[in-house]
Write a structure and sequence with these properties.
The protein is α+β, with helices and mostly antiparallel strands and 296 residues long.
Length: 296
């Protein structure tokens, strides 16, 4: 791989807002080719002032913004939205944007601007699609990725441009994985989903059936499945099995461990049933996985 060279610029771009109380921003290449490879232009985190306002009829690059704290208003392509923690939206060329902060609960938001021939197709495939708004069920993970982007951009080494692109792709995929409809995060249904998810994560070794989980959460099993279809990309039972099989994979790497012992530890009375489930989730049988790990 060639070592990319960061293009130095003497001063920040003019489109950075001055209506901020505090900011961490980086800029790598302010004159990239729209027809070249995917390129991160700039990004950062802004603590908005009470009078923060942005009014644009277009923007030279594609952009993703993420609200970490506070409240505000947004108007994209003529449609109005309320901004709150966990909201993500995107815009770009020929997409009008009007953004304002609530003066009493001022916005803290992250952004990344990018361009290249792959930029728009990436957004349209994974989201948020240009001119659209969504929310995330994993705001902490999104925040961590933005912080990684900023740290890398501020480091500004010869590797920063390429690392930034990799982090941007990771961010877009994570947004897609954890996307929920805008307005869902504050609903009772989402609160119930999060409570059930936490129950599975906290006591996955204890649970064996979907009915047990639903009973502990005081809801119907069918409703639990509907919640996961709405807010997740897997069923609650699939999630439970993935947690169990991840633990099984760790146990099978230990010297002297046996399939029968690991199966019993996870509540599988039949080692053959355990092996079938493990292979379905991990794509290898327990024996194949153990041999592969020991060779490694």
């Amino acid at each position: 791989m060639e070592n990319p060279v960061a293009k130095k610029v003497s001063k920040p771009p003019k489109f950075f807002s001055v209506q901020v109380a505090k900011a961490r921003r980086f800029y790598l290449d302010l004159k990239p080719s729209r027809h070249g490879p995917l390129t991160v232009v700039c990004g950062g985190c802004e603590h908005c002032t009470p009078d923060y306002e942005i009014h644009r009829s277009s923007f030279p690059y594609w952009s993703i913004e993420f609200v970490a704290q506070g409240k505000g208003t947004l108007r994209l392509k003529g449609r109005s939205y309320q901004l709150g923690p966990g909201t993500l939206f995107s815009y770009g060329p020929k997409i009008s944007q009007d953004i304002g902060s609530d003066p009493h609960e001022t916005l803290v938001k992250y952004f990344v601007d990018f361009t290249g021939k792959e930029a728009e197709p990436l957004l349209r495939r994974y989201g948020p699609a240009p001119g659209h708004v969504l929310q995330t069920s994993a705001p902490g993970e999104i925040l961590d990725l933005f912080d990684d982007l900023i740290r890398n951009g501020l480091r500004d080494t010869s590797y920063s441009p390429r690392i930034s692109v990799v982090l941007l792709e990771h961010l877009i995929l994570k947004v897609a994985e954890a996307a929920i409809p805008h307005g869902s995060a504050g609903t009772p249904a989402f609160a119930t989903y999060r409570r059930c998810l936490q129950e599975i994560e906290d006591r996955w070794l204890h649970w064996q059936t979907l009915e047990q989980i639903a009973g502990e959460c005081h809801i119907d099993p069918a409703y639990l499945c509907r919640l996961f279809r709405r807010f997740d990309h897997q069923s609650p039972y699939q999630y439970l099995l993935r947690l169990k099989m991840s633990h099984a994979a760790e146990r099978l790497q230990a010297p002297g461990s046996s399939v029968k012992e690991v199966a019993a530890e996870l509540g599988f009375g039949d080692p053959f049933h355990f092996s079938r489930v493990f292979k379905k989730v991990m794509r290898l049988s327990p024996a194949q996985f153990a041999r592969f790990q020991h060779r490694s």
